[in-house]
Amino acid sequence: MHEHDATGATRGAQAHTRDTGTQRGEAGSATQSAAAPPSDRPAGGAPAGVNSGGEGAPRHLWVLTRHDVDYVLHYTHWIPIGRGYTRSMLARHYPGWTLGTLVGLFDRAGIRILPADLQGARGAQHGGRCHWQVVSISFSSPVDVEVEWDRSLPFD
Predict the structure, then answer these.
(1) What's the CA gap between 114 and 125, in Å, rounded?
(2) ∠ Cα 138 22 32 (to 5°)
(3) How far apart are alpha carbons 100 and 95 in whole angstroms?
(4) Do the strands 129-130 and 112-113 form a parallel or antiparallel pair, or are they unpaired?
(5) What is the pTM of this model?
(6) Which residues contact 127 (CB under 8 A, 6 or more apart)?
């Protein structure tokens, strides 16, 4: 995986990235609860099998917004893990994926911020939070990943 800046030059990171310069929708809005899936669709973006492969079809099977990533990270706490809530959420919204694989994918893509890095900032739960300038992360496998950034968004 490689990271590209706005000019397309490779910077040697681990995921393909694209800067948009604009924010799309309300993904990651401070008014949304990290414990609830996005209001207009189930968590997990497009499930496997949605990509028909036709002209104009998305390149990746999964597309997650910043809010979707925060939703997954909410389930990294020991209480939902211990009570089986994390396993149920993954089976319902991310069939075939494990928590460790998704969190590893987020880390390799450079989009997860750990609570220690935010010095206790709001929204930095046990598993961290998605970087505030992420518009979406698209992937089909743990190694086929692209990140869309909006570098104009201020820290929240």
Answers:
(1) 8
(2) 70
(3) 14
(4) antiparallel
(5) 0.65
(6) 73, 74, 75, 76, 77, 103, 112
Smallest CA-to-CA distance from 73 within 92, 89, 56, 53 is with: 89
Instruction: For residue 146, give the H/E element and its range.
Output: strand 144-149
The tokens describing 135, both together, are 């518009």
pLDDT digit string (tens) for 73-127?
999 999 999 999 999 999 999 999 999 999 999 999 999 998 777 665 555 567 8
Q: Which amino acid is at 115?
A: P
Over pLDDT 70: what percentage of the chain?
58
Tell me the three state secondary structure of residue 60.
coil
Q: How many residues does the chain have?
A: 156
Task: Please report, for residues 82, 93, 114, 149, the alpha-carbon distance to residue 4 in angstroms, rounded to integers and kept in the order given.
Answer: 39, 29, 23, 11
Encoded tokens for 128? 């961290």
Q: How distant, in Å, are the alpha carbons of 36, 76, 86, 122 from that of 41? A: 11, 22, 19, 25
Q: Which contacts qualify for 117-124: CB closer than 8 Å, 24 or more apart? A: 123/30, 123/34, 123/70, 123/156
